[in-house]
Design goal:
Radius of gyration of chain B: 23 Å
Number of domains of chain A: 2
Largest sheet of chain B: none
Helix content of chain B: 55-70%
Number of helices of chain B: 16
Order of helices and strands of chain B: HHHHHHHHHHHHHHHH
Strand order of the largest sheet of chain A: 1-2-6-3-5-4
Shape of chain A: elongated
Number of helices of chain A: 5
Oligomer: heterodimer
Largest sheet of chain A: 6 strands, mixed
Distance between the termini of chain B: 11 Å
Largest interface: A-B, 16 and 14 residues
Number of strands of chain A: 6
Strand content of chain A: 15-25%
Distance between the termini of chain A: 10 Å
Strand content of chain B: under 5%
Shape of chain B: globular
Chain lengths: ~200, ~450
Amino acid sequence: MSDSNNTESGFETITAEDADNASPVLILAEFESADQLMEAAEKVRDEGFKRWDCHTPYPVHGLDGAMGIRPTILPWLVLGGGMTGFTGGLIMQGWMNGISYPFLISGKPFFSIPASIPVAFELTILLSAFGAFGGMLALNGLPRFFNPLFRSDRFRRATADRFFISIDARDRRFDAPANAQFLRGLGANAIEVIEE
Amino acid sequence: MGHKHTIDLSTENRSLGGLSGQLIGFGVVLVIIGLVGTLLMGNLEGAFDHDGANHHAGDGHAAGAADADKHGKDEHGGDSHGGHSEGHHEVHGYVSKWSPWHPYLVAATWLLAICLGAIFFVLIHHVTMAAWSTVVRRLAEAVSRNFILMALLFAPLFLPSQMDKLYKWIHPDPGDTLIEIKEAYLNYDFFLIRMVIYFAIWIGLSWWYHKNSVQQDHDGDLKRTRRMAHFSPMGLILFALSITFAAYDLLMSLDAHWFSTIFGIYLFGGCVLSFHAFLALVVIWLQANGRLTRAVSDEHMQDIGKMMFAFTVFWAYIAFSQYMLYWYANIPEETAWFLRRQENFLWGSWGWLLIVGRFFVPFLFIMSKHIKRNRATLALAAIWMLIMQWADMYYLVMPQIDSGKEFPFTMLDVTIPIGFLGLFLIGLAVSLKGHSLIAEKDPRMPESLAFENA
């Protein structure tokens, strides 16, 4: 890892040591407080950035709105999982107990709704949970074992007492020097460009 | 968290003020509708009919018993019907003759459920030291003070001359061993003692929590918060025991042969559900009239909606747990209660009404957060849930009446609940009047005002 200090533009550049033809992958801005971050996030949102994120040590209420995050489709995935579990559970038991291997137990019908509800209920919960967990991972592009953000030593404080905004180089408004100046103007106390 | 979420209460309209007149006026109108409707259209004959077909010598209150015998003959061709062991002839643990006390009991338990849910709300939020609910806790305290009204409404039911219109165990059929062995518990004196204890617990809890809360408005004494939290676990234990046994006494003993250990929790689920529905309506009504418009936000409404959603599921879970175990074991003593509710089209349909109308419809409707945060849709769900609570109480009380061949629906099923609701709203107006609508100096108020769903 090599660090270079671009004092003119007011940001540091962090480059992976083994990188050939390194180019920026993201720009990182550090803020002192959640309030500063909120205000900055609103400005970044209004500036029209699309591929960017905030990193905070704890959940900051209202940040979703400040970032302009649109509602996720995750609830629909959970609903789909739950309904699959419920109908799948009923069909499975109907086929097993009623068709594949009918077995008379204490005079009950081979297949009956009351007896099948507990399993159908549990499968509803199970597949809803799978939908929520798997859907969350998939929508977030996880698991991901390395993120260029980890090259920054400063970023470690994102789990303690600092607040960060990162802008992805794939954003069509990405332009390291211009973005650095913009973020500095929003009150960032340090700017880093991470290259890979 | 940020500064912009701080809400200044000084400009908030947080007293009932002139609205108390509106609420009392609306209550009076409902009472008049209920009263006039009852007198005009209601059939009150059964209520004071003491000397109907008197079957037992020296027993002045056997109208129900005589009817039950008739029922037995109609259905099975006489008392000597065989097949029962240990002297268990055609005896019934329930009164099978309709009386006006049946719709009366349905309406009274319907509103009692809201009060029980209210005192539970107060206690559980103290025991967990919850902050989100602090802005609406005063409303719950006020609703729970209606226990005094409920005691007055229930009192006529417990008159010795009237109780046998509802409860067969007052004058059981001769040779009814199933009731005889329960006599140490199911007898009039002990029943009355228990009722006094239940209402003493409920009125005492609601009075004490309301008193401490409104006094804190004036003295701001933080020790009160600690004291209320400190006593809440004991209060919850008293609540749990009293609601369980009250459910047994008031509703389960309508059929004294039948028993279900989960019955108290079944009633409890409906109580908490209907209180949150009622609370949502009270808040929406207050806000429509310019009260608490900023103190209670969409975030709080969403949480009230979450509780409505949660207890819709809870009710279904408990109702199904009760049903499935009896269905599976298939022991006549236990299934009789459900059989009576399934063997004919009317009560079979009513059961489906509860499954679909009390579980599936509200479950799917109120699942989305947008529905919970929108006042109109939340109010719609709340009204629906309160109607379903009434339908549930109806399902617990009414199918005892003679084999359900005829639908026991009368105008009293509408007029009595309307009249009682009127009294309930007047009681609420009296409780809310003269105090702030929120717990002014509760130490958790700032946290509650700033509450947001993550």
